[in-house]
Prior knowledge:
The protein is an alpha+beta fold.
Amino acid sequence: MKDQARKGKQISRRGMIPILGSTLLIPLLGFGNTNNDETTVSKDEEYKTLLRADGTTVKVRTSILKKSKVVKENVSNKSLLKWLGKKL
């Protein structure tokens, strides 16, 4: 008898609150985490440490360095310091 009465009723607002609350807990439980191939660090790849213009260092994959275009080879120390904005 209760099953027949329930088929005609819609879910009330009060019945929606536990459903909404449980969906907010999904990120805390870790179900939303995905492993992207691009963001994971592979152990077999080699990295080189390079210097940026602001003086910070950056780790770059060697495969990307092989594909890149060389702007200027054999840079002198003075021109490097000028590029960095440092004075001798």
